[in-house]
């Protein structure tokens, strides 16, 4: 009330912008302070009269949209660059184009069929045995050709993976992995210096081209989100309203995450929902519109560049013209169950391997581990069969129908040997699952989306072939009554698409955004309902095994101080609604409470030297409360870890309020204080505190009784409470 009365009686007075030091590494930003600072900046612009003020306000309003459009253009351009270079490197393992070394196989052999012999494409083995049609070669010559083909394939694969691992280790260690878990943490307010830096952007882009081109079981979709956020950090820093305001930078990063997913799958609406559902902890209405524009611009840029020269944004875009039948719904539910089980088991075994990598001897040899995995993957992929294809080509062929293939496609479309086709598909799914488990988490840029979808697509296609064979064997059953006169009652390619969604949902626990992404990939509404049912079942089954997807579990593994997405589920726990904040708070007896006036720099340094705390409540007679926004109360000298011991803000020395007569005469702390902190009563429920921290982005919550300070609660306290 006093604050409102002050502004009502003195409307010309601008809001006071508190001083802020630069956020330290592994600390948490102060959302309230950054928003107040931006409000003060806007208020100063409003006070500028005349035409100059109008122009400055117009430019200020346009800056956000300029940044969003620039991020969308950069994301689409980088995605196209990665697509072109990675596909060229992937074909370079087999040979080169005689018409131009810079052309990949598709553009080099554009004038012939996909599987026809192309004299312009020169395999590396042709330098020794000649470049003849393999079908015209003798047995011995074909054997020699296969040996040299395998040798060059393995050498190039290992070389690409080795270079990517060395670049990451020497120049940008944050460029390794997918990056979505860290992006989610940064968007939650955590500060990781260098994670969104220029070197990280360069090494992530180049390393992603090399790692995808090496043929490892990884994808580029997740890392594209990290690339887009790095671009948003770099571009937004060029504009003053964003350069010194971390909260506003994170609003642009939310839009950039949507653009990254939009460019990865060619699904702008799915990218917006992905940013809302999976990574953003703060998603106001204005951020939704900015995400809409950013995702649209990224997809439009990729469409205009047209890197595949097919008019498609991704290699595995398909369109289904037939609808699904009611008898297929139980089979789709079964695919959801299998996807949930696979996702839970994959997360379990992969996280066990990730922990061993950090604590075992593998932590000392990340480059050698990458080389070993690359050799294993190359030896398996160099042979003929489904494992030889890249993940994009594999998904594109499995999603399509056999009528759209000019050949048998590795025996999958052979109607006379369906049992063999099912066995080959299941073997490919098992191999891809094994390779994905050991590949994801290497010290190179690597995503989990495409490998998980490939595993599910192989299993789904096998189930689709089995259902099709069952229908053709017993076409007169009553369950097939709706298939009269329809020779294509079952669509095995649709089973591959639904199986891919089920496996990805089981691993990541994505639901709404994943359904929309699959809808945009197929370009029709026919299979939206089966996809929704399958994804929901996969999430339920996966959550029955363990809570949280692979990214949430990586956040817990890295011990990042971010409240989990399912915080609201805590309110359903026994006694959670009635448990008061007094059971959780750090009491007054363990706090250093300092007065507002009379400080010197020397005494403040002495106070910091003799205490282990990282923040001090500032009070006047313990009634008027404030907290220094420059001091981080959520993270101490080390990481804020949920598994650590219960944090205390004073371990030794004098506790309680420090009397003013103990302090020498000097300056006051008012310019560094947040004068209107959030306070609650000791009887306030902990579930309400969780809502405050999650929705408002608080760093500290004061507990008062009749205006008198009795304790405080930090995000670290809440994390420890949830962990226990």
UniProtKB/TrEMBL annotation:
Assigned GO CC terms: early endosome; Golgi apparatus; plasma membrane
Domain of life: Eukaryota
InterPro entries hit by this protein: CBS_dom, CBS_dom_sf, Cl-channel_core, ClC
Span list, region Disordered: 633-658
Keywords of the record: CBS domain, Chloride, Ion transport, Membrane, Transmembrane, Transmembrane helix, Transport
Gene3D superfamilies, alphabetized: 3.90.1280.20, Clc chloride channel
Residues annotated as domain CBS: 673-724
Compartment annotation: Membrane
Main subcellular localisation: membrane
PANTHER family the UniProt entry points to: CHLORIDE CHANNEL PROTEIN (PTHR45711)
Family: Belongs to the chloride channel (TC 2.A.49) family.
Protein name: Chloride channel protein
């Amino acid at each position: 009330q006093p604050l409102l009365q002050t502004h009502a009686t003195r409307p010309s007075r601008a809001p006071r912008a508190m001083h802020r030091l630069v956020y330290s590494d592994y600390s948490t930003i102060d959302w309230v302070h950054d928003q107040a600072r931006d409000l003060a900046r806007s208020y100063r612009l409003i006070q500028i009269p005349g035409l100059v003020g109008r122009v400055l306000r117009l430019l200020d309003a346009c800056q956000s949209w300029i940044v969003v459009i620039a991020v969308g253009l950069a994301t689409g351009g980088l995605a196209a660059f990665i697509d072109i270079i990675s596909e060229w490197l992937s074909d370079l393992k087999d040979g080169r184009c005689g018409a131009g070394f810079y052309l990949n196989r598709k553009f080099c052999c554009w004038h012939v069929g996909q599987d026809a012999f192309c004299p312009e494409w020169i395999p590396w083995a042709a330098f020794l045995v000649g470049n003849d049609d393999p079908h015209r070669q003798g047995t011995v010559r074909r054997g020699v050709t296969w040996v040299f083909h395998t040798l060059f394939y393995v050498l190039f694969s290992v070389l690409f993976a080795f270079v990517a691992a060395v670049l990451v280790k020497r120049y940008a260690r944050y460029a390794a992995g997918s990056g979505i878990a860290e992006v989610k943490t940064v968007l939650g307010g955590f500060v990781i210096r260098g994670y969104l830096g220029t070197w990280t952007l360069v090494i992530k882009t180049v390393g992603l081209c090399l790692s995808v081109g090496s043929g490892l079981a990884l994808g580029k979709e997740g890392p594209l989100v990290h690339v887009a956020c790095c671009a948003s950090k770099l571009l937004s820093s060029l504009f003053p309203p964003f350069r010194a305001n971390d909260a506003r930078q994170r609003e642009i990063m939310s839009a950039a995450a949507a653009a990254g997913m939009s460019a990865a799958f060619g699904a702008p609406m799915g990218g917006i929902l992905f940013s809302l559902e999976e990574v953003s902890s703060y998603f106001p209405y204005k951020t939704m519109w900015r995400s809409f524009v950013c995702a649209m611009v990224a997809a439009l840029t990729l469409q205009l560049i047209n890197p595949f020269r097919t008019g498609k944004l991704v290699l595995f875009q398909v369109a289904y013209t037939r609808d699904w039948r009611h008898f297929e719904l139980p089979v789709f539910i079964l695919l959801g169950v299998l996807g949930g089980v696979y996702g839970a088991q994959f997360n379990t075994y992969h996280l066990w391997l990730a922990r061993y990598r950090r604590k075992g001897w593998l932590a000392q040899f990340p480059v050698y581990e990458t080389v070993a995995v690359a050799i294993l993957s190359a030896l398996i992929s160099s042979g003929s069969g489904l494992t030889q294809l890249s993940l994009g080509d594999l998904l594109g062929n499995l999603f399509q129908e056999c009528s759209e293939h000019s050949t048998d496609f590795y025996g999958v479309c052979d109607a006379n040997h369906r049992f063999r086709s099912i066995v080959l598909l299941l073997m490919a799914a098992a191999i891809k699952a094994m390779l994905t488990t050991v590949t994801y988490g290497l010290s190179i840029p690597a995503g989990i989306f495409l490998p998980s979808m490939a595993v599910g697509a192989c299993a789904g296609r096998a189930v689709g072939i089995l259902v099709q064979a069952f229908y053709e064997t017993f076409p007169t059953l009553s369950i097939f009554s709706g298939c009269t006169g329809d020779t294509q009652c079952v669509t095995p390619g649709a089973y591959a698409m639904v199986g891919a969604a089920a496996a990805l949902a089981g691993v990541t626990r994505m639901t709404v955004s994943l359904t929309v992404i699959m809808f945009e990939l197929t370009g029709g509404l026919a299979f939206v309902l089966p996809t929704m049912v399958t994804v929901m079942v996969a999430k339920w089954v996966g959550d029955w095994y363990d809570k949280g997807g692979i990214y949430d579990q990586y956040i817990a593994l890295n011990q990042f101080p971010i409240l989990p997405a399912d915080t609201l589920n805590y309110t359903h726990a026994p006694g959670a609604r009635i448990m008061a904040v007094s059971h959780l708070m750090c009491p007054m007896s363990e706090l250093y409470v300092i007065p507002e006036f009379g400080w010197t720099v020397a005494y403040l340094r002495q106070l910091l030297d003799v205490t282990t705390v990282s923040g001090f409540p500032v009070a006047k007679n313990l009634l008027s409360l404030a907290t220094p926004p420059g001091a981080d109360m959520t993270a101490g000298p080390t990481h804020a870890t949920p598994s650590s011991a219960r944090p205390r803000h004073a371990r030794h020395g004098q506790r309680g309020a420090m009397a003013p007569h103990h302090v020498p005469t000097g300056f006051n702390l008012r310019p560094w204080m947040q004068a209107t902190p959030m306070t609650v009563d000791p009887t306030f429920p902990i579930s309400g505190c969780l809502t405050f921290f999650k929705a408002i982005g608080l760093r500290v919550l004061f507990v008062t009784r009749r205006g008198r300070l009795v304790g405080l609660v930090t995000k670290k306290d809440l994390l420890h409470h949830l962990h226990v």
